[in-house]
Write a structure and sequence with these properties.
Elements: H1 9-18, H2 23-41, E1 44-47, H3 49-64, E2 76-80, H4 107-114, E3 118-123, H5 157-164, E4 170-175, H6 181-187, E5 190-193, E6 213-218, H7 221-232, E7 262-265, H8 267-270, H9 277-291, E8 296-299, H10 308-323, H11 342-353, H12 356-368, H13 374-396, E9 401-405, H14 420-424, H15 431-436, E10 439-447, E11 454-461, H16 466-482
Parallel strand pairs: 2-3, 2-4, 7-8, 7-9
Antiparallel strand pairs: 1-3, 4-6, 5-6, 5-10, 9-11, 10-11
Length: 503
């Protein structure tokens, strides 16, 4: 009788297909695990138990009739609460949308459902994805399963924590400046930001439309690849104008040898003042793990990377201001009662419906788009974007992937980042990838000797070479497993075998 946290998503789907256990039994095991672990972790904002059981019953009925099952048959999946799913609320962890019922289902969610996944619930996040710790959620904070007094990262912290705690094997998040890769690093799971356009964003509440991308979390690279196959199997989504069609073959290349592949390193980053000693040591371990498999390392440069944060905090808030203008208390969102005029109602509704960080970013965006300021900041930020994209193009002309930190430190304690600028700097090594639109994946490489918390390496690859990037990620995972250093594929200590048994 295995526990749900002992099985990968691929093993669950295969077990359901063979009849080792039913999809309904898997859902109940996941719900039991959630019931026992949520008081400590609080990864979820809502649990869709009835919807999950209904979906599982359909899967079981299909198997009983001998009908073919999908890639994720019976696999419990959680979704970040900025993704629409009929039968649930989509709150973006904000009072502004606290009671908003999803009117349709996002394409990324629907594709996993079409693959047979069971929707377990919606996960906590930083309000409207504005943050790097999940502390700005309007409803509650989520604890890191490795140490619940530390943050899980953000903004997709709830999704990362749910996977790390063994509540679900797969969860979806969104990444605008590192919001999948950084929480994956903090929680000791694998997290992938695909190339911009690979996964449809239709039905995902927008933060920065030129930066946002949806991607999966899993406890191993294989599960992330499985989720990616399900996300792209339907081809281009006509409902997302930036959507592209890519082959659904992420798992086919995973175990291919990486001997002779070239991985770029940026020596200046290894000496960056923000980088902790234990992260630096973990990156050296990651390099050694790839070198033993025949990977060749080359020196490359991203000379404009230091300007990425400045450019991001012009482009991101400007796009956020435009995207969140619709939440005015009239068309969408919280509405303040008893106002004498429409202007008063809009002002009071937005003042009380949005939290501090959401207001901060919208005010910054409004300022940056104002007449006389636009030319001073927005145009230069876009010029920096062009330079960063060109830097990546030059780097990838010399290598197949880049190896760099996912975050400058291990997960920090609640309240430890006292100013917004400190929090913004936590995305130092991830933001440039969103600006250029390339793919990135965070892979756990062990525990920090000082913090005793997970540390990850980040791999970045050229646009639309996501398949090859996951191949390198699997090689890294394999290498650190052989060295006995990784926490990938496990659940956080203290959470294994606390409910979730499969009959």
């Amino acid at each position: 009788m295995p526990y749900i946290d002992e099985l990968s998503a691929a093993e669950i789907a295969a077990g359901v297909a063979r009849g080792d256990f039913s999809a309904t039994e898997v859902v109940r095991a996941s719900l039991d695990a959630i019931a026992s672990r949520e008081p400590d972790v609080q990864a979820f904002l809502q649990i869709s138990a009835d919807l999950a059981l209904q979906t599982a019953a359909v899967t079981d009925a299909r198997r009983a009739k001998g009908e073919p099952l999908g890639l994720l048959a019976g696999v419990p999946v959680a979704f970040k609460d900025n993704m629409q799913l009929v039968g649930t609320r989509t709150t973006c962890a904000s009072r502004m949308l606290e009671h908003f019922e999803s009117p349709f289902t996002a394409t990324c969610v629907q594709r996993l459902l079409d693959a047979g996944a069971t929707p377990i619930g919606k996960t906590n996040m930083d309000e409207f994805a504005f943050g790097s710790s999940t502390e700005s959620s309007a409803f509650h904070r989520t604890g890191n399963p490795w140490d619940t007094q530390r943050v899980p990262g953000g903004s997709s912290g709830g999704s990362a924590a749910a996977v790390a705690a063994g509540e679900v094997p797969i969860a979806l998040g969104s990444d605008t400046g590192g919001s999948i890769r950084q929480p994956a690093s903090f929680c000791g799971v694998v997290g992938m930001k695909p190339t911009y356009g690979v996964v449809s964003r239709y039905g995902v509440v927008a933060f920065g439309s030129s930066l946002d991308q949806v991607g999966p979390f899993g406890r191993c690279v294989c599960d992330v690849a499985l989720a990616m196959d399900a996300l792209v199997v339907g081809g281009r989504d006509p409902l997302d104008s930036m959507s592209q069609s890519v082959p659904a073959s992420f798992r086919e290349q995973l175990e291919e040898p990486v001997e002779g592949m070239r991985v770029g390193v940026i020596e200046s980053l290894m000496e960056h003042e923000a980088l902790s000693a234990e992260v630096r040591a973990a990156l050296e371990d990651a390099r050694a793990a790839l070198e033993t498999q025949g990977v060749q390392f080359v020196q490359v440069a991203l000379p404009h990377m230091e300007a990425a944060i400045a450019a991001y905090y012009v482009i991101g808030p400007a796009e956020a201001f435009s995207n969140l203008a619709r939440f005015d208390g009239v068309r969408f969102g919280y509405q303040e009662p008893d106002c004498a005029t429409l202007a008063e109602q809009t002002a009071r509704s937005r003042a009380r419906g949005f939290g501090a960080e959401a207001k901060r970013r919208q005010l910054l965006g409004a300022y940056l788009l104002a007449s006389g300021v636009y030319d001073q900041y927005y145009y230069p930020a876009q010029q920096v974007r062009t330079l960063i994209t060109a830097d990546y193009r030059a780097a990838f002309a010399r290598c197949d992937a880049l190896l760099l930190p996912a975050a400058p430190t291990a997960a920090f304690r609640f309240g430890e980042m006292s100013t917004p600028t400190q929090m913004y700097a936590a995305d130092l090594f991830t933001i440039s990838n969103n600006i250029a639109g390339n793919a990135g994946v965070s892979v756990p490489v062990g525990l920090g000797k000082t913090s005793c918390m997970p540390i990850a390496a980040q791999l970045q690859g050229p646009a639309f070479k996501d398949h090859a990037l996951l191949r390198v990620a699997r090689a890294l995972e394999r290498g650190v497993e052989d060295a006995g250093r990784t926490c990938s594929g496990t659940v956080a200590p203290g959470f294994a075998r606390m409910g979730g048994v499969l009959a």
